[in-house]
């Protein structure tokens, strides 16, 4: 959070663990974005947080990109 604040974002512009529902055929799946930064009450940045010990991989990139597509915003970021 301190890093996001240093970029000028306040906590009232953020949403945490927001549910995102995806439809896969007849099956509904609920995913949770770690952090969404809102602009005009719409998510503009999706952040998928990982443990510092975690090495990012292609699956992580696909995960956050999928979140961004589901909420119709720019590609997300892995931290």
TrEMBL record:
Residues 6-71 form the Type I restriction enzyme R protein N-terminal domain. This is Type I restriction enzyme R protein N-terminal domain-containing protein. It comes from Bifidobacterium longum subsp. suis. It comes from the Bacteria. Pfam families: HSDR_N_2. InterPro entries: HSDR_N.
